[in-house]
C-alpha cells in the first residue's frame, strides 16, 4: 500500500509590490469656481443603526431636540444628495430601514417644486460593487459599480428616474414626502445595504427639508409597510439625531492626524463650470512635444497638489460633529471646456486623461507621484462624458466609465492628431461619484512623436 502523502497548498504568486513613478510636470489650479446653488448633503452618519434625524433644515421651534434642526430655508434651484448604509443590528431584527425626505411649505400660498433630474439606487440589487476594467465605453449607461456610480451616471445624462414625478405641489403650511424608500437587508448575507440619491430641484417658494431614518412599520400579518407622512412628521418633531455618530472632524487648521469627517449640512455649490484657457487668453496652448501639464480635480485641504486651491464646497450650515467642508464634492458636476490650440509650429499628437496621483499638499519630488502597478484601493469609479471633433472633423459624444486605483496613471480618454495651428474644443463633464477618494487631475500631454510626422 502506498503511503498517504500530505496535500501541500499550491504555491501562491507573490504580488508585485508597487513601484513609485514620478511624472515631473506642472500642476495648475483649475479655472472657474463652484456656483452658489445650495446642496442639501445628507451623508452622516453614513452607517445608520437607529431611527432619527439625519439632516434637518427646519426651524427648531416646537421641536423636542432643537439642536437637530439647522433653520435654513431653501428656495429656487437646490440639490439634494443622500448616501447612507443600513446594517441589521442583529440577525433577529432584519427590518428594512426606510429613508424619508420631507419637504415643508411654511408659506400662505402653494409652492411648486420641479424635479429636474433625479435617481436613487440601492447597492443590492440595483448596483452591486463589481470588478470592472479601468476603462469601458458606456454609451448606453449600463456600466456601473455601486449605487453612487449609477446615480451619477443617470443624472449626468439628464434623466429623472420613473419613481419621481416631474413636479410636486405642497399646499400652504403643509408637508409632502419627496422620498420614502427602503434599504432592505433581510435577504442579504451579510445583512448590509446602502442607498445613494441625487435630486436636482427648483421651487417657486421657500421650503424646509429633512432626511430621516425609520425602521419599517409592521402590519398585523408581519409584513412591512412604508411609513406614513404622519409617522415621518412625528419623528421629525420628536426625534433626535440618528446614531452612531461618525468620527468628529479635526479643525481645518490642524495638519496632523487629520479627520475630514462626513457631511451633514447644506453645502454651497452644485456645479464647477470652467473655460480652461491660458491666462488672459481664449485658448489653451498644448504642451511642447514630450511634455504635459495637469489641472487639479476635487483638491482639498492637505491634498492641494501645490495648487493652493481647495475645491471642496463650503458648508453654509452643519452639525458640530460633522465635516467643515464637503470634501470629495459628492454629486457635484464638473463641466470643463478646453479650447486646445497647437501653437508649437509642427503637427502633434495630444492626449487627455484623468489620473489619480498619490495625495500630497506640496509636490515633494517636483511632480506627480504614481504607483506601478497601482495600489489595490479603488479611488475613483464613475462615468465621464467627452465631446469633441475627431481628426476627420466629425462631432463625437462619448461616455467612458473609469475605475482608478490609488496611484493610477490613467489611460488616454481622447487622442487628437493636431496639425500646426489646429484648434480643437474638448468638453469634459462628470459628477464626482460617492465612494471615491480625492484628489484627481486632468492631464493634457503631447506625445514624443506625432502620427502625422
The count of strands amounts to: 27
Rg measurement, Å: 24 Å
The shape is: globular
What's the main sheet like?
A: 12 strands, mixed
Q: How many angstroms does the end-to-end distance come to?
A: 74 Å
Helix content: under 10%
Structural class: mainly beta
Number of helices: 2
How many domains make up the coordinates?
A: 2
Q: For the residues shown, what is the average pLDDT?
A: 95
| Poorly predicted ranges | 1-11
Describe the protein's architecture and organization.
This protein has helices at residues 147-156, 229-238, and strands at 19-23, 26-28, 33-34, 38-42, 47-48, 52-56, 74-87, 97-104, 111-122, 135-137, 167-170, 175-183, 192-215, 264-268, 271-275, 284-285, 292-297, 313-318, 325-326, 333-341, 348-355, 368-372, 378-389, 395-405, 414-418, 423-431, 440-446. The protein has two domains: 19-34 and 270-446, no CATH class; 45-135 and 142-238, no CATH class. 4% of the residues lie in helices and 42% in strands. Strands 4, 5, 6, 7, 8, 9, 11, 12, 13, 14, 18 and 19 form a twelve-stranded mixed sheet that branches. Strands 3, 10, 15, 16, 20, 23, 24 and 26 form an eight-stranded mixed sheet that branches. Strands 2-17-27-21-25 form a five-stranded mixed sheet, with no helix packed on it. The protein has 453 residues and is mostly beta strands. The chain contains two helices and 27 strands. The protein starts with 18 loop residues before the first strand and ends in a 7-residue tail after the last strand.
Amino acid at each position: 500500500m502506498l503511503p498517504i502523502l500530505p496535500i501541500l497548498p499550491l504555491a501562491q504568486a507573490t504580488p508585485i509590490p508597487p513601484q513609485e513613478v514620478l511624472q515631473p510636470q506642472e500642476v495648475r489650479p483649475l479655472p472657474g469656481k463652484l456656483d452658489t446653488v445650495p446642496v442639501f448633503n445628507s451623508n452622516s452618519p453614513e452607517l445608520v443603526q437607529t431611527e432619527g434625524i439625519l439632516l434637518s433644515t427646519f426651524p427648531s421651534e416646537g421641536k423636542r431636540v432643537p439642536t437637530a434642526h439647522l433653520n435654513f430655508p431653501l428656495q429656487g434651484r437646490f440639490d439634494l444628495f443622500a448616501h447612507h448604509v443600513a446594517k441589521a443590528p442583529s440577525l433577529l431584527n432584519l427590518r428594512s430601514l426606510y429613508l424619508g425626505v420631507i419637504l415643508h411649505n411654511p408659506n400662505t400660498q402653494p409652492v411648486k417644486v420641479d424635479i429636474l433630474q433625479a435617481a436613487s439606487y440601492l447597492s443590492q440589487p440595483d448596483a452591486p460593487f463589481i470588478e470592472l476594467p479601468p476603462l469601458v465605453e458606456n454609451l448606453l449607461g449600463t456600466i456601473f459599480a455601486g449605487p453612487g456610480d449609477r446615480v451619477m451616471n443617470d443624472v449626468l445624462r439628464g434623466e429623472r428616474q420613473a419613481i419621481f414625478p416631474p413636479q410636486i405641489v405642497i399646499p400652504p403650511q403643509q408637508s409632502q414626502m419627496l422620498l420614502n424608500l427602503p434599504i432592505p437587508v433581510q435577504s442579504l448575507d451579510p445583512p448590509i445595504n446602502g442607498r445613494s440619491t441625487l435630486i436636482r430641484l427648483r421651487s417657486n417658494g421657500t421650503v424646509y427639508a429633512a432626511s430621516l431614518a425609520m425602521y419599517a412599520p409592521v402590519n398585523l400579518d408581519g409584513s412591512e409597510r412604508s411609513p406614513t407622512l404622519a409617522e415621518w412628521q412625528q419623528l421629525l418633531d420628536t426625534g433626535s439625531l440618528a446614531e452612531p455618530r461618525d468620527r468628529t472632524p479635526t479643525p481645518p487648521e490642524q495638519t496632523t492626524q487629520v479627520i475630514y469627517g462626513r457631511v451633514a449640512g447644506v453645502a454651497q455649490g452644485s456645479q464647477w463650470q470652467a473655460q480652461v484657457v491660458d491666462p488672459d487668453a481664449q485658448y489653451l496652448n498644448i504642451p511642447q512635444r514630450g511634455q504635459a501639464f495637469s489641472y487639479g480635480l476635487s483638491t482639498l485641504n492637505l491634498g492641494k497638489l501645490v495648487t493652493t486651491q481647495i475645491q471642496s464646497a463650503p458648508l453654509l450650515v452643519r452639525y458640530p460633529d460633522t465635516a467643515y467642508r464637503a470634501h470629495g464634492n459628492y454629486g457635484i458636476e464638473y463641466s470643463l471646456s478646453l479650447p486646445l490650440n497647437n501653437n508649437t509650429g509642427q503637427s502633434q499628437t495630444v492626449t487627455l486623461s484623468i489620473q489619480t496621483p498619490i495625495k500630497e499638499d506640496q509636490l515633494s519630488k517636483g511632480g506627480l507621484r504614481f504607483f506601478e502597478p497601482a495600489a489595490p484601493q479603488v479611488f475613483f469609479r464613475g462615468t465621464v462624458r467627452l465631446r469633441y471633433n475627431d481628426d476627420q472633423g466629425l462631432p463625437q459624444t462619448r461616455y467612458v466609465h473609469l475605475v482608478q486605483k490609488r496611484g493610477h496613471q490613467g489611460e488616454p480618454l481622447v487622442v487628437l492628431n493636431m496639425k500646426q495651428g489646429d484648434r480643437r474644443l474638448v468638453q469634459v463633464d462628470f459628477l464626482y461619484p460617492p465612494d471615491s477618494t480625492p484628489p484627481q487631475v486632468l492631464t493634457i500631454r503631447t506625445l514624443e512623436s506625432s502620427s502625422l510626422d
